[in-house]
Design goal:
By secondary structure, the chain is mainly alpha-helical. It has two domains: 30 residues; 124 residues, Orthogonal Bundle (Arc Repressor Mutant, subunit A). Helices cover 71% and strands 7% of the residues. Helix 3 crosses helix 4. The chain is globular. The mean pLDDT is 86.
């Protein structure tokens, strides 16, 4: 791979990442969920529909500390998007799930994501789509491994607000 290829690939990755964030942000502002941030939407996604997850499970999925998640969940509970329930067996365990309001917002966001992905792959053939999927899986594995290598101290520094 040449230096020009590396620069081009870097520019593409940065541009795609930033563009997705901008499009999601614009969609969020245009939708009827003006009181939610993108971070809160992604937290709702991590909780998922029709599930009761522990705080630790959601924090691990988001790659943040339970302390950081606790702050976000408190805001989401206050806004009516998340329900927090202590386990009957072990009061230390808190399970969280989406309220009906949270599930509606998550469905809206999933529709947006589905449309975005459909538009991306509509011009690709089946083989190109498979190569794209494989490449994205490799990218995800690479970044997950890099995140794990950071260690807990560095992870806390990188947590989203």
């Amino acid at each position: 791979m040449t230096d020009n290829d590396i620069k081009l690939l870097n520019n593409l990755l940065v541009n795609v990442f930033n563009t997705i964030l901008k499009i999601e942000d614009a969609h969020l502002r245009e939708s009827k969920v003006g009181n939610l941030s993108m971070t809160e939407i992604h937290t709702l996604e991590a909780i998922g529909q029709n599930r009761k997850k522990t705080m630790t499970e959601v924090a691990n999925e988001l790659m943040i500390s339970v302390g950081t998640l606790t702050i976000c969940i408190a805001r989401l509970v206050e806004k009516g998007y998340v329900v927090r329930v202590k386990s009957l067996e072990d009061k230390r365990i808190v399970r969280i799930s989406l309220s009906e309001k949270g599930e509606k917002i998550l469905l809206q966001h999933e529709v947006f994501h589905n449309k975005m992905v459909q538009q991306v792959v509509e011009s690709l053939g089946e083989d190109e789509t498979k190569v794209l999927i494989h490449s994205m899986e490799n990218l995800k594995s690479f970044f997950k491994k890099k995140h794990e290598e950071l260690g807990k101290d560095k992870q806390d520094e990188l947590e989203y607000q």
